[in-house]
Amino acid sequence: MELSQIKPSSSSSTLPEKCMICNRTAHGFHCDVATCKGCKTFFRRQLLSGEEAKCVLRKDCYDLTKRREPLFRCRPCRFQKCIYVGMNPLALNFQARTTAPNCEENSFKTTENLIHDVVGMLLHLESKVEKFRKCSYNPDWKEIDKIQSLLSSTNKLSMADSYGEITGWPIKSDSRVPLKHNYFQTYYPKSKHWWFFNLLTLTEYVRTFWFFDSLDLQDQLLLIRHAVVGITLFHISYFTIQRSCQYLTQPDGSQHPHNTMPDYKIVSMLVDPMYRLKIQNEESLLLKLLFVCNPVISG
Ligand SMILES: [Zn+2]
Ligand SMILES: [Zn+2]
């Protein structure tokens, strides 16, 4: 399905005029994406129904490079496009919805169903996180002056599509160049400042959970401060063992921090236990969630 026409604009803080799914007038950001009211409601209903229908046509009913108007009757293609443009199911408040009285959309009756759906959403979120780490967005840490301004801006995870995937990875070991201000230190021009970028990524990850917005600013800051470093170390450790690497590895193939650094032992302490326990993907997703839903954060 050719969907190149729906790449979001590079500035996601201003609302695009058109719904990224059907091209009608956008109404606001819903689940991290600019959509019309119709597509917003559609996405929520579709997730709650759990319907798994298949397109009976050519699977391109919402490909606006092939037609001027989408075929609204095709729900599978519409839902596919919602996912493709990056709508985030975790932004929906499922728990509240499923326990609300007289809720016509109440279809998550059992705990088992609920867990199944939460895992599905976490898998989807994980793919967004990895896409973001591999995108060409590579800000200078000085650009983001305060965590408060980050928290009040549009979540950056949905910007990965507009930036596109970075090229030239994995980086070659002979592509190091000297730093401008210190000739004896070198860096890879195509690499990211991984400490900063990973902390930024996992901060945005925490912000995607529906309850985050309901916290006041002080509690948001408290949660970020207590959770994000742990989640970041957990994330890069699991990324490392998924690729069967010996040392902490980043998406560009670089080792960061390098195992010769004095703090390496501390930041890599999760790698060996993860190998030993043969931790599975779903387990890692749920364990990471515990960092966010930690009831004993003091303050
Ligand atoms: Zn729409
Ligand atoms: Zn279709």
From TrEMBL:
Coiled-coil annotated spans: none
Database matches in SUPFAM superfamilies: Glucocorticoid receptor-like (DNA-binding domain) (SSF57716), Nuclear receptor ligand-binding domain (SSF48508)
Protein name, per record: Uncharacterized protein
PROSITE patterns: NR_LBD (PS51843), NUCLEAR_REC_DBD_2 (PS51030)
Keyword list, A-Z: DNA-binding, Metal-binding, Nucleus, Receptor, Transcription, Transcription regulation, Zinc, Zinc-finger
Lineage, broadest ranks: Eukaryota, Metazoa, Ecdysozoa, Nematoda, Chromadorea
NR LBD domain sequence ranges: 149-299
Family: Belongs to the nuclear hormone receptor family.
Cross-referenced InterPro entries: HNF4-like_DBD (IPR049636), NHR-like_dom_sf (IPR035500), Nucl_hrmn_rcpt_lig-bd (IPR000536), Nuclear_hormone_rcpt_NR2 (IPR050274), Znf_hrmn_rcpt (IPR001628), Znf_NHR/GATA (IPR013088)
Cellular localisation: Nucleus
GO molecular function, one term: RNA polymerase II cis-regulatory region sequence-specific DNA binding
All copies of domain Nuclear receptor, residue ranges: 16-94
GO cellular component terms listed in the entry, alphabetical order: nucleus
